[in-house]
Amino acid sequence: MNTYQLIGLIFAAVGVLTLAVMGVEATRRKTLNIDFLPLSSWLTGISRVMIGVLFIYSGFVKANDYVGFAYKLEEYFLVFGEQFPFMKGFWNFFIPLAEPLAWFISVFEIALAVALIVGWRMNLTIWLTLLMMVFFTVLTGYSHFTGSVTDCGCFGEALKLEPWESFVKDIILTGMLIPLFLVRKSIRAVPSPKVAGWLTLASFVIAGVFSWACHENLPLIDYRPYKVGVDLAACTTVPGPEGYPKCKDWDPAFEGEEIALFEGNTLMIITYQVQNAPAKAADKSGNLARELKNTSVKVVGATSSGRTQLASFKQAHNVDYPFCFLDETVLKTIVRSHPGYMLLKDGVVVKKWHYNFAPDAAEIQSLLGI
Fold first, then answer.
1. What's the alpha-carbon Rg for the chain, to the nearest Å?
2. What letter does residue 231 receive in the DSSP assignment?
3. Same domain (yes/no): 48, 79
4. Interacting residues of 180 by C-beta distance below 8 A, sequence separation 6+
5. What would the pLDDT profile of 297-345 be if each residue is shown by its tens digit?
6. Fewer CB in a 10 Å sphere around the end CB: N or C, the chain?
C-alpha cells in the first residue's frame, strides 16, 4: 500500500465514522441540527477541512499549469466524440474552449474549497461540491471501466493516479459529502457570513490571477520530467520502474544533418505546430538565433509539423536555424509555451522560457558562463 492509498483509507474511515456517529446522535436527539449533535459537529468540521485541503491542493496543481489540464480535457472531448458519434458535434464544440474551461475549473475548485472550510452559504456550497464530485466520479469511472483515458489529470502532473485509484478517490469524497449534505443548513460561517464571503471571493481572484500569471510565463512549479536540473541524456534513455525512460518517446528526426543535442551548449526552440505560432514570437526566435550564430551555443528548433509547413514558416519569419521533428505530446510536455525555449549544457536543462519572456544572447551566455 502506497502513501496515497493510505490517505484514501483515512478519508474513507473519517467519512464512515462521521455518518455512523451522525446516525446515532440524530436518532437519539431527533434532529439534524449540529448545534445539538456535538460529536457530529466535530467530525463534520474535520471532514470539511480534509476535503477542502485536498481540493486546494488539486486546484493549485491544475491552476499552476492549466494548459496541461486543458490538454487532458481535450483528450476527454475527443474520446467522447469518437465513442459517442451521435454527440460528436457537441463534444467538438468544447475542444477550442478547453483552456478557458481548464482555468475556470482550477480556480473554481480552490474557491469552493475555501467556501467549504469557512462555511460560506453551505446550502449552495455543498450542492455545488456534490454536483462537481458526481461529475468527476462519472468521468473517472468511465476512464476506469473503459480504459479510454489512462490519467484523469485530477492532480495535474504532480501526482499520477491509476484510473481505478482516481475512481475510488472520487467515490470516497462523494461519500464524505453525504453527512455534510444532511446537516448543511445548520453549519455556520466562520468567523461570520460576511467575512467568509470575502474570503471565498478573495480566493477566487487570487487563484485566478496566479493561474493566468503562470499561463503568461511558465508554471511556478514544474512537475514534468523535463524540468530545470534534469540530465536529459539519462532521462531519455535510462528505463525507470515502469520499464521505460521518464522522458519517454524522445526520438528526434532531423531535417538535415543530425545534431548532438546533449553535447555542449544547446538552445532548443520548441514550436509544436509552426503554422500556429504567434508571428512576433517566431520573428523573435529567428533574431535570437542570429545573435547566437558566432557563439558556442547551437540553436535547434523542434516541431511536430510537416516539412512543407516548416519550409513556409522559415520563409515567412526569416528563420534559418535547423529543426528536428518530435512527437507533439513530447514537445507540449517539455515546455508550456508555443514557441518556448529550453537551454541545455551537456544535456542538463539550465533554464526554460515562455516566449513572452524570451531571453537575449547576453542572458544565455551569462547562464552558460561563456
1. 25
2. B
3. yes
4. 44, 47, 48, 122, 126, 187
5. 999 999 999 999 999 999 999 999 999 999 999 999 999 999 999 999 9
6. N
**3-state DSSP percent of the chain in helix, strand and coil, to 5:** 60, 10, 30
pTM of the predicted protein model = 0.91
Stretch (H or E) spanning 265? strand 265-270
Residue 339's nearest CA partner among 355, 316, 328 is 355
In whole angstroms, give the CA distance from residue 364 to residue 347.
15
Cβ atoms 231, 347 nearer than 8 A: yes
CA distance 155 to 340: 24
Task: Compute the residue count for the chain.
Answer: 370
Which three cell numbers mark 42? 466535530
Q: What would the pLDDT profile of 27-36 be if each residue is shown by its tens digit?
A: 999 999 999 9
Determine whether 294 is exposed, middle or buried from the number of CB atoms within 10 Å of its CB (0-12, 13-18, 19+): exposed
CB 248 within 8 A of CB 279: no
**Domain CATH number, residue 264:** 3.40.30.10
Distance from chain centroid for Cα 21: 37
Residue finishing a domain among 169, 189, 216? 216
Tell whether 195 and 270 lie within a shared domain.
no
Single-letter code of the amino acid located at 119:
G
- 303 close to 323: Cβ distance less than 8 angstroms: yes
Nearest partner of 364 among 272, 268, 280, 279, judged by Cα: 268
Which stretch of DSSP H or E encloses residue 345?
strand 340-345
